[in-house]
Amino acid sequence: MIRQPRINHGAKRLLTESYNTVKAQIHITLKTGVLDPQGKAIESALGDLGFDGISNVRQGKLIELDLTESDYGKARALIDNLCTQLLANTVIEDFAIELDD
Amino acid sequence: MKTAVIVFPGSNCDRDVQIALRNATDSEPLMIWHQETEMPSIDLIVIPGGFSYGDYLRSGAMAAHSPIMREVVSRAQSGTPTLGICNGFQILTETGLLPGALMRNTSLKFACCSVFLRVENSYSAFTHHYDDEEIISMPIAHLDGSFYTDDFTLTKLIDNSLVAFRYCDASGNTSKEANPNGSLHNIAGIFNSSRNVLGMMPHPERSTDPIMGRTDGARLFDALVASF
Q: Which of B145, B136, B131, B144 is closest to B206 using CA atoms?
């Protein structure tokens, strides 16, 4: 479940050669079906605070990083690699990538 | 018998394991700092418990990529007996030497107590001094010990007798009440498919001397020495 990057074709990026980093946000979430006791505890705390109608709370991680790779295809492939090797444990977690400049 | 203990920043059971190995083997274990890239010929590698890298990202995730781990993975894959205790078990799953993952305890509490374990398979270098279905006792001390894997892998572990220990009560019942962390199938320890790698959440090194109140863990280290 990799999201399509939000591509911003701003003119600034084309004019300034040195401005060549891409910002990435990586959302790491537990796979469907994997128990999330922390999410359950948060859900129960929200209920205790009087918030009604909230269900299926799941806790995840957000990792932000900058890349010098400006080709979006290559940047996605690179982050895919980072995620499978270290950032996510694909036994229990899914990840989704968002790119922006 | 030459043994090695891998030491990471944040390991805190390395000295306990060192003493257990010293007593069992009558020789001095090699303490190997995680930044090393090589190790001499070794007959048993132990990855001790603790909080390597402060459990950053996920328990064991950073340590699994320490320089020495490339060598540990290579040795384990070539058949060197390799034992991961607690954080060591988490590190072994993160390297892929063992399947599954150790997740946050379902209670969300740090579990620090003695547990009963049922020996599921005594046919290994680690467990041959126990009897099948024998009930033993060891301490646990962890926050992320809930063993999880997909159904396919769980079935494979059970069908191939790769479950080493399961949490049980004093009578050997592997009930939900006897499960301290929410592990699937009450799993406390598993082998790899060749049974030369064992990962377990309980601490055998903390039950090696009568002064500790129990000695069931000593039999695991003695078994390793006897099988050498």
A: B136
- What is the CATH code for B3-227? 3.40.50.880
Task: Give the chain A residue nearest B146 (alpha carbons).
Answer: A35
pLDDT band at A15 (very low <50, low <70, confident <90, very high): very low
What does the alpha-carbon distance between residue B159 and residue B151 come to, in Å, rounded to a whole number? 12
Least Cα separation, residue B70 to chain A (angstroms)? 14
Using CA of residue B10, residue B15, residue B21, residue B22, what is the dihedral sign? positive
pLDDT digits (tens, 9 = 90+) for A32-41: 999 999 999 9
**Among the options B86, B120, B129, B168, which is catalytic?**
B86
Distance, in angstroms, between B106 CA and closest chain A CA? 5
- pLDDT value of position A13: 46
CATH code of A11-100, in short, is 3.30.1280.10
**B79 Rama sector, left if φ>0, alpha if ψ -120 to 50, beta otherwise:** left
The residue of A35, A91, A93 whose CB has the most chain B CBs within 10 angstroms, and thus the best one to mutate to test that interface, is: A91
Q: Is B104 on the interface with A (CB under 8 A)?
A: yes
Q: List pLDDT tens digits, range B68-83.
A: 999 999 999 999 999 9
Percent of chain B residues topping a pLDDT of 90: 99
